[in-house]
Design goal:
It is built from seven helices and 17 strands. The chain has 345 residues and is an alpha/beta fold. It has three domains: 5-172, HUPs (Rossmann fold, 3-Layer(aba) Sandwich), CATH 3.40.50.620; 214-260, no CATH class; 265-343, Translation factors (Elongation Factor Tu (Ef-tu), domain 3), CATH 2.40.30.10. α1 (14-23) links the parallel β1 (5-9) and β2 (28-35). 35% of the residues are buried. GO terms for molecular function: ATP binding; methyltransferase activity; tRNA binding; tRNA-uridine 2-sulfurtransferase activity. This is tRNA-specific 2-thiouridylase MnmA. One of its GO terms (cellular component) is cytoplasm.
């Protein structure tokens, strides 16, 4: 009986290296590296080639620059210029990494794809279920909340049951000891560049200053381009006062930045669009769930109210701070991801 053939998504970091080391024991593995819009692609490729040589596995480079630009970079820029704050990793995971990249890997004769994500997949008679990784400090289930049943069926997360410290110890046993501080970048196309600098360089025609207005309608300053701001931001406003001002709203239609005081950032109800249920069906709305409104959010208890097939209201038991349009609300039942959607307001 032939071994299962697994394509490893390699990044040059410790996690994908550990994934390859684990799987090569009982499967036939080959490495795959995406060419997207990395400013330091040549350096990254050289590192991945060196790791593949040390691992003694074949390496393939999949060029997805054009598709990445259309599906991720244009989404990223459009979101900021329309007054919202995007999450490019969420979109990239579904459309590119576990979409086009996964298809490329499978088309090369691989049976499944494997990545170094800290998350777990459980398969039973009802389908594939996405759960938190064991390590709470590295849990990446949030970023995978847009995946489909078909995508989950063809991927393995070998590190889901491990802690990061264990992964470092594991690879060091095989002589891989030069990973100190090297991690895959969340926003690979930015490198060390700020969002504002990135957009200003590439879309100079879209840079427009405008008024900064309080929630009471009083102009209190001028902004230098709405794309430089996000909900909850305090720095860079340049508005002197006895207590700090925060960004509470962004009105792209009138090119207006809205600011208020700290307590004006609190909300209990949000509207979410483009809802995606991992099982394909909405959950029991009589239950309560934990909802994360950004990756760094620990989650808060909430009830769901269905508006229609593609949108819901999420009502929290306690007010949440700086709910940001454009970000993703991810809904959990215990440690299982059951759905997600884009925060509208």
């Amino acid at each position: 009986m032939s071994k299962e053939r697994i394509g490893i998504a390699m990044s040059g970091g410790v996690d994908s290296t550990a994934t390859a080391l684990i799987l090569r024991e009982n499967t036939t593995v080959e490495g795959y590296f995406m060419r997207l819009a990395q400013p330091d692609f040549d350096r990254q490729l050289a590192r991945v080639e060196n790791l593949a040589e040390q691992l003694n596995i074949k390496l393939h480079v999949v060029d997805l620059r054009q598709e990445f630009t259309a599906k991720v970079l244009e989404y990223f820029a459009n979101a900021y210029f329309h007054g919202t704050t995007p999450n490019p990793c969420m979109v990239c995971n579904r459309e590119v990494k576990f979409g086009l990249f996964q298809k490329a890997i499978l088309s090369h004769g691989m049976d499944r794809m494997a990545t170094g994500h800290y998350a777990r997949i459980v398969h039973d008679s009802s389908g594939y279920h996405l759960h938190d990784g064991l390590d709470p400090a590295k849990n990446q289930s949030y970023f995978l909340a847009r995946l489909t049943q078909e995508q989950l069926a063809k991927v393995i997360f070998p590190l889901g049951e491990k802690r990061k410290s264990e992964v470092y110890a594991f690879v060091s046993e095989y002589g891989f000891t030069d990973f100190g501080g090297i991690e895959s970048q969340d926003v690979c196309f930015l490198a060390n560049e700020s969002v504002g600098s990135y957009l200003e360089k590439r879309y100079p025609q879209a840079v427009r200053g405008g008024p900064v207005v309080s929630t009471e309608g009083v102009q209190v300053g001028q902004h230098t381009g709405l794309f430089r701001y996000t909900i909850g931001q305090r720095r860079g406003l340049g508005i002197p006062d006895a207590s700090p001002w925060y960004v509470t709203g962004i009105d792209a239609e009138t090119n207006t930045l809205i600011v208020g005081k700290s307590d004006e950032l609190l909300k209990t109800t949000i509207r979410v669009r483009d809802i995606h249920w991992l099982s394909g069906m909405p959950p029991d709305i009589d239950e309560t769930y934990s909802v994360r409104i950004r990756y760094s959010h620990r989650g808060a208890i909430a009830k769901l109210q269905l508006i229609d097939q593609s949108s819901i209201h999420i009502v929290f038991t306690e007010p949440q701070r700086a709910i940001t349009p454009g970000q993703f609300a991810v809904i959990y039942r215990g440690d299982e991801v059951i759905g997600s959607g884009v925060i509208l307001d």
